[in-house]
Each structure stands twice: as structure tokens, then as C-alpha cells.
Amino acid sequence: DTYTGKRVVRLTSPDTVSHHEYFYYKMMSNDSRYLIYASAQGGQRNLYRMDLGNGDAVQLTDCKVNDFSACLTSDDRHLICSDGQSNFSVT
């Protein structure tokens, strides 16, 4: 970053839209090992968990709609989600 002098690293492919949920939702594990993010890979927006140590990502949801939000619980045991039609927990 030219303003801060910090190194910025792209974690996801520029070929698809990927983003963090709203800025105040907890999406990083307490040990900073995992990042939860939304991505439209394959055309459908779902949640993924990326291991920041090796860059591997695992799809966590299989939503049928694109409108949803999510937040990790304070103990990292559950990812609470809403897909616009229902609320659910990913453990």
C-alpha cells in the first residue's frame, strides 16, 4: 500500500467476486489461522474458510440464494448464517 507502506497480499482469485462480510462481523478465528469469506465461485455466492497458513479454502455452505450474512461465535465453534430464507449454524 503506497499510503501506509504495508505489503498487501491478494488471498483469492481475481476471476470471481470474493469479500469479507460486513466490517463488524467476526470472520477471523481467534487464533488468526482461518478467515471466513463469501465468494461467488461457480456463480453462486457461498461461504468459505481459508487456512491462512497454506491458502487452502473449503466451501462451508451450499446456499440457493445470494443474499446472506454470517458471523463466527466468540468461541469459534459455530458460524451463524442467514441465507435470506432461513437461519442456520455451521459447526
Automatic annotation (TrEMBL):
GO MF terms, alphabetically ordered: oligogalacturonide lyase activity
Gene3D superfamilies: YVTN repeat-like/Quinoprotein amine dehydrogenase
Any Pfam family the entry gives: Pectate_lyase22
SUPFAM superfamilies: DPP6 N-terminal domain-like
GO annotation (BP), single: pectin catabolic process
Annotated ranges, domain Oligogalacturonate lyase: 1-81
Identification of the protein by name: CAZy families PL22 protein
